[in-house]
Amino acid sequence: MIERDQVLHVAKLARLRLSEEEVERMVGELSGILGHVDRIGNLDLEGVEPTSHVVALENVLRADEPRPSLPRDLALSQAPEPQDGAFRAPSPQAE
Amino acid sequence: MAELEPVIGLEIHVQLATKTKMFCGCELSFGDEPNVHTCPVCLAHPGVLPVPNEQAIRYALQIGMALGCEIAPRSIFHRKNYFYPDSPKAYQISQYDIPICGAGRLGEVRIHRAHLEEDAAKMIHVGESGRIHGSGASLVDFNRGGTPLVEIVTEPDLRGAAEAANWARLLRETVRQLGVSDVNMEEGSLRIDANVSVRPAGSEELGTKTELKNMNSFRYLQRGVEAELVRQRELIEAGGTVEQETLHFDPTSGNLTSLRSKEEAHDYRYFPEPDLVPLAPTEEMLREAREALPELPATRIARYEEMGIADNVALSLAADPETADYFERAVAAADGAEPKVVGNWVTGELAAALRLAEVEGGAAASKVSPENIAALAALVQAKKISHGSGKAVLATMVAEGGDPETIVEREGLAQMSDSGELEAIVEQAMADNPGAVEKIRAGNPKAIGAIVGVVMRETKGRADGGEVNRIIQEKL
Amino acid sequence: MSDLLALTALEAHEAMVAGDLDAAEYTAAWRQAAAGDELNAYLWRDEGGEEAGAIAVERDCIAPIAVKDIFCTEGVPTTAGSKILEGYRPPYTSTAVRRLIEAGAPVLGKTNMDEFAMGSSNENSAFGPVLNPWDRERVPGGSSGGSAAVVAGGLAPWAIGTDTGGSIRQPAAFCGIVGLKPTYGAISRYGMIAFASSLDQCGPLTRTVSDAALLLGILQGKDPCDSTSVGLDAGVSLPGREDLSGLRFGVPAELGHDEYDAGVRAVFEATLRKIEDLGGEIAEVSLPSTEHGISAYYVIAPAEASSNLARYDGVRYGVRAGGDGDLIEMYEATRSQGFGAEVKRRIMLGTYALSSGYYEAYYGKAQKVRTRIATDYADAFSNVDFVVTPTAPSVSFKLGEKTDDPLAMYLNDFFTVPMSLAGIPAISIPAGLAEPEGGGKQLPVGFQIAAPAFGEQNLLEAAYALEQGIGFDARPGDANG
Hints:
The complex is a heterotrimer of chains A (95), B (476) and C (481). Chain A has 95 residues and is mostly helical.
């Protein structure tokens, strides 16, 4: 149902690194689940609107008025690597 | 090989000048200390939810209307999913297949769509080389993250680099006059990317396009597009094919460098944003947006061109609404002067005279009334005074005010209308300068200038230069 | 002391208001009870006293409450049952908890849960499974397993949890208590760590229907921080219905096709008879699209989850791993080490369903099935006042029994998922006891009642009358079976 290289591709999209054992398992498990889920593929859903919004609301907006921001030390308090008032992260790989 | 024509489209990001961010109440800022305008929402903490800024919606409607766009009766937000440190939710809330503004037009270029989205945070690269592709790290400042943006996408209607830059200027001016954005390319409140391709002239198909990003002035935009057009042409003429890629133009070196390799094409996995409900602009919102529109440059330009004003003069006027209003009052007062002539006086000589006299505030703030500039233009057009005399009168008007007829009389600047008198002076000048006359006869047309100069001195500039030339030719 | 703990939250509230019960003494009794947690139900407890007081209380006449660790509480550990948020202390408090605090309810602690609310057994927690107070070798259900266990196990008078596909109702059924999933939009989601945005809802887990009503009344309301919140216009009153006369209860015809335990079936049918005894009418309704509920749910929920969980990237909060590598290495190490197997599985499923070329076939189709399901219910409600089903296909199962087969675990949600997809309210009340399929001690069976959107008051009234009629009074630890 789902092939190994598809699993690897999806893992990359999701920024997950799977061990070899995990990849194997994923192929089996996802195939099983998709096998069940695929049943909806046979339904005739012609003319049915997808539910993209559950509540029948429109135009729920906020007035353009400033609200207090977090004090910076609180904003950074959970950061794994704060530096110079900013959030430090590794650079993307050199190309 | 068939001639290749450029096919250019632009993608413009306009940062809106609202007080707060698109989806939270943090204030917008520029140049503040990092991370002093953040909250759990724009830091994408677990459990937070976005709530759209009403003013941003209104500004987007105004931009759409100014561009003649169809306003969608119902539009929705989508999530555009990708991982990068400047994107804290790992998705950007944007609009995908149902944007707030649809097809429109500005000048000669069709607008494909315009939609709302949020800006990314700012990343400062630190590390050995300091370049994004070197080793090292990024420091992320979320102050900018969440700023409301309107993204405008054009159809690929532009056919040259200069045309693209000029149209971009018109767009900027249009948005600026709405008062919804600072549209400052250096500060980043206006960002323009160009999609560039070439194709055989006359073909309907589109060639492979490349994307030029982040050119931060109109000049660089033009040069960058020019450079890319050259590159593509040379590549094709050498038998190669254009590959889809993203390029950066370095204005100092004139080089184009590839920013991203082609296999990195993102799969954004768009889906409707479940945390936001649809936008359905009400009659009232639409009416208010329409009423907020000033007369826009494109409309003015069209009007002026119908009056016979040249493109560049029309653009210059449209970019300066106060001077444009002044010009229109002058045209209304003008008795005998063509609008084209009035336009040239206002944007040419008057502007220069004001600059020389260091008068601030433009024509409308000067001592020269619209009626008087029109009268002056009429006098010159009717050849009652020479152009040169006109400039002298203008200088007086700039300094003191007053009307041109009075000044002309007072200074005795009326153009020499008696051709007999003029003829006599010309004859005298020719007699006094036989050497010059010889040169003219020998076929050196520039020598005429000497005779003309003498005549002008004699007549104190009141003679019409063209008339003098004619008489000289007759007498030869 | 145990008399105090025997009071329902409503009884305690009334006593405190009347001045007959000292709030501080009552809360202290509960803190002491909570400290005796042997079920691994609490991940963090507020120990009370001077140094703690992490959560300030304003008006003190509401019973103290246990809060699923999915609700952000400022300065207090909030993990969503995941290692990736170990040590995380939010800089803000969720609206649901804020409303509790403002009503004067002290927070007893944060309860254990399936990681990021993904699971039906509370075996997916990074901090160990929760044990069912009825039988400590069995699961309490999930994902709000901790919240259900504390209420059933005498460790809290009541609790809040979240329900995305049954995560309040199913643990309530497995633990013999009341669990309510309100209409989507009734309670604000602001501060509730997101699993599936279009399905997640906060709700009460309580001993009685009246307690659920009291709690719902405190929690519900439109919130400017949540664009999708609507609240309940008419508010909530305490139910008082005496019987079920004049009410029609629809039993889906599709139940006939479904496989569920004989013991559960027996209790279900006995409850239908009880409804008739109380004057209610049983009718058959047809909900043909509900057969595809699991398929639609297991596309939509993982898809939204894959996007909601992408923010756990080690940059701004939570755990970071692989920080010495480049950006992608850091992302991958952080997420691979931080997330458990079930979460990874659902992220993979969801990413796949949204990926280029698959969107229409999966997400697009699933959202259409969802519309159909909502229409099925709307049609049914033109004929009956409520739709009733068993809450779960079995009683509680043994720890480890279903962990090898994810699909089998997903199928547990069969009866609860359709109401989530339709956005309508549904309640589970304990209706009896049954032996598990392999034999053994009898365990609670839940009866589920679903109502039209925003029909909470009617739902609570009917559930109350039925609850009174059933008179379920079994407790964990009672000798039976």
